[in-house]
Amino acid sequence: MSALPFATVTASGMTVPGRGGKIREVLARRDLLFLLVRRDLQVRYRDSFLGFLWTVIRPLIQFLMYFIVLGQFLRAAEGIQNFAIYLFAGLTLYMFFNDTVSGATGSILANGGLVKKIYLPREIFPLASVGGAGFMFFVQLAVLLTAAVLFRALPAPLEMLWFFPSFALVLLYATAVGLLLSAINVYLRDIQYLTEVVLMLAMWASPIVYSWRMVSDVIDRFSLPAWGIELYLANPLTIAILGFHKAFWGAGAPTDYPANLELRMLIAGAVGAVLLLIAHRVFTRLQGNFAQEI
């Protein structure tokens, strides 16, 4: 015992992390994090005959529904070449954001047994939801890439580098929002139901089933204030999806994207980093009473 280092403990019985902070503490328990991700994936498709095939089947069915109903019946595909790739690219990135935020929001309550019995960094639970959603995202990304190759819809290799900042931006915001909502949901259980509504609105507020030019045309047609389009482009999910289209939708022309997309993405990333710090600060302040509230 005398050889062990001293550890500072708060009044709530929680260990204060030393050098490296919470990142070091989470990395020290990365094996547990991987186990939680694996458990969530296995539980999701337990006793299912098709198993992980549902990771592909679900987005494909959703894609076909939007493609047929909106693209063909309601003619949303008019003026958008390779509408199938355009639609599936946006859905793939949005589903990652949706699965991450919705999974992280209920992660503390879903692991209430562990929270009440042992101490470990509580951040590990929403981060496990990020890992599970990330696994599903890369499976769907493989389908998207295969479809883009078959339809010969891929842009130049240099344009495909837009994948990295677009994915990083969504990962940043999804982690920040998921971390924040997971803590608040312990005290206010209505958050998880409100989150479902907001995520549904977030999809329709992003250029997934329609083009960005349609929004610009509507603002011009009705002589709406010029800041309306800037407000629309302030949505980081919108910016990320536009970048994703650049990476996988080769049919896009310069007019299909707003000016200074790189700068907009950089600003959104800076704001997202601040949001992540604030979210973690709030999470740290609230986690002391998780066990009592659960």
Strand and helix layout:
Blueprint: H1 21-28, H2 30-44, H3 54-73, H4 83-105, H5 107-110, H6 112-117, H7 124-150, H8 163-187, H9 191-204, H10 212-221, H11 227-233, H12 236-248, H13 261-286, H14 290-293
Helix pairs in contact: 2-7, 3-4, 4-7, 4-8, 4-9, 4-12, 8-12, 8-13, 12-13
Ends distance: 33 Å
Show unreliable segments. 4-19
Oligomer: single chain
User: Which percent bin holds the helix content?
Assistant: 55-70%
N-to-C order of helices and strands = HHHHHHHHHHHHHH
Give the number of domains. 1
Summarize the main sheet.
none
Over all CA atoms, what is the radius of gyration? Answer: 21 Å
Number of helices: 14
Characterize the structure shown.
This protein has one domain (22-293). α8 (163-187) packs antiparallel against α12 (236-248). Mean pLDDT is 85; it is low at 4-19. The chain has 14 helices and no strands. With 294 residues, it is an all-alpha fold. It is globular and about 55 Å long.
Give structural attributes:
mainly alpha, 14 helices
Could you provide a short overview of the structure?
By secondary structure, this protein is mostly helical. The protein has 14 helices and no strands.
